[in-house]
Every structure is written in C-alpha cells, then in structure tokens.
Amino acid sequence: MHVVPLPALADNYIWLLHDDRGQAIVVDPGDRAPVEAALQERALQLRAILLTHHHNDHIGAAAALRERHGAEVVAPWDERIADADRRVGDGDAFTLEQPQARFDVLAVPGHTRSHIAYVGAGVLLCGDTLFSLGCGRLFEGTPAQMLASLERLAALPGDTLVCCGHEYTAANGRFARQVDPANPELAARCERVAAVREQGQPTVPVPLSSELACNPFLRIDSDALVQWGRRHAAGDRIARFAALRAAKDAFQG
User: Which residue of the set 28, 78, 128, 180 is catalytic?
Assistant: First the structure.
C-alpha cells in the first residue's frame, strides 16, 4: 500500500492510500480539489472514504466525493456526520476488497467525544488525536480521556506509521523543546523537521517509535516530564498531562 499525504486547506493533510492496481482510499477529505487532482494524476479509482471525526475540515468533501465516485464512506457513530455507508466504533474491524486492506477501529475520545482511529496496512490514521510531536486540543473530552487515548495509540508497534491530520510538527517541536530540553533525540528530530519544511515537504508520516522518543504527550511519565510537572504544581499524571496541554494551548512560539 502506498501512503501519500495530500496538503489541503491551511495546514490539513488528507491521506491517500492506494495499491498498484489503481484502487484507492482517502482519509478525512476536507477539500475535494486535492483528492480529485491526485486521483487523476495517478489514474486511481476511489473506493472508500474513512472519517475520523466530525469537524468540517476533515469531512467537508466526503459527500461530494462519495457522489462522484460511488465510494463507501466509513465513519464513527456521530449524528454530526450525516451520510455514512458504514458506522464503526471501538473494537470493530472491517476489510476492504479494493484496495485490499483490513482496519481495526480504536475509540480515541478527547479532541471530540466520538473520535476514532484506524489501524491497518502498517499505518495509524489518527486524525486530530495524535500529532507529530504533539496532540490535539481538548474540545469535547477531558485530560483523562485524551491521555488514555494517547496511551492506546502508544501501545501499537513502533514501526507503525503515524498519519495525522495537520502539519503542526515544527511548532510542536518548538514547544516540546521547552518542556524536554535535554532530550537529544528530540533535538535531532527538530533539526530534521526544519530541513524538511525548508524544502516544502511534509514531516509525516513518521514511525511511532520516533514519537515515543520525542513527543512530550507520549512521555508524560518520563523523568523530564515528571520534573516539569513538579515545577508546575501538577502532582499526578493526569494533572501533569492537563498542565502540559494547557501550556501548549498558551504557547506563542
């Protein structure tokens, strides 16, 4: 399976997965134009559309693509996503025949209450739950929910490719270095990110193993983050996570 990030809107990524027989899946299409262009350029047939959550920058083009291509829409159980051919939730698994792929579904509430992630074909399609070097804002969930969701994702195999919904890596890296300044792997990662972005290239997908080594939201129990939490009067690990997310929300770098 080929995995292609399609830049869309201001800083979104729509994910295109396709096989060598010209069969394709798109994930979280907030904009129709980049999808249509990629399908035409690669001579692909769109067979399925996977949605992670209800925000319009992730579903805005799903209905038009479904109508144009006859693609099956797979979505979480959420009335705010009006049109779906298949509804899925935590613990579900499904198989697509074209392109041939099997996905497991994980409930990952926090950013939204009904957010799901898809795991299959060696990739993690995580929407706005886990970002490269960061995590999503808590619009509808609690810190405890988001921390639990991130821990579910962190337990996946390290070679899983993280395919997130936005290009936030550079800014996330600047914040991460503020809270985990002595992490050499993080420093090296930020250097690579700067070089990639200077060339106008995406920073994702990225192996989960790199996120485990560098992403402060996945390192909440590391010595560096425990010490940071003590300085910010965040006692237990949920309070520490909440303080970390609040600090990121306020970060101006």
Answer: 128
> What is residue 234's predicted lDDT score, i.e. its pLDDT?
83
Could you name the CATH architecture of 2-250?
4-Layer Sandwich (3.60)
Active site residue 111: yes
Question: Can 2 be counted among the known catalytic residues?
Answer: no
From 18, 69, 115, 166, active-site residue: 166
Looking at residue 233, what is its pLDDT?
85
> Given 54, 111, 115, 180, which residue is catalytic?
111
pTM of the predicted model, to two decimals? 0.97
3-state secondary structure the chain: CEEEEEEECCCEEEEEEECCCCEEEEECCCCHHHHHHHHHHHCCEEEEEECCCCCHHHHCCHHHHHHHHCCEEEEECCCCCCCCCEEECCCCEEEECCCCEEEEEEECCCCCCCCEEEEECCEEEEECCEECCEECCCCCCCHHHHHHHHHHHHCCCCCCEEEECECCHHHHHHHHHHHCCCCHHHHHHHHHHHHHHHCCCCCCCEEHHHHHHHCHHHCCCCHHHHHHHHHCCCCCHHHHHHHHHHHHHHCCC
Q: Is 115 a catalytic residue?
A: no
Determine which one of 18, 28, 54, 58 is catalytic. 58
What are the pLDDT digits (tens) for 107-134?
A: 999 999 999 999 999 999 999 999 999 9
Residue 100: band (very low, low, confident or very high) from pLDDT cuts 50, 70, 90: very high
Task: Indicate the domain borders of the chain.
Answer: 2-250
| 7-16 pLDDT, tens digit each | 999 999 999 9
The per-residue pLDDT for range 157-197, each reduced to its tens digit, is: 999 999 999 999 999 999 999 999 999 999 999 999 999 99
> 54 catalytic, yes or no?
no
Catalytic residue among 18, 28, 53, 78: 53
Q: Is 232 a catalytic residue?
A: no
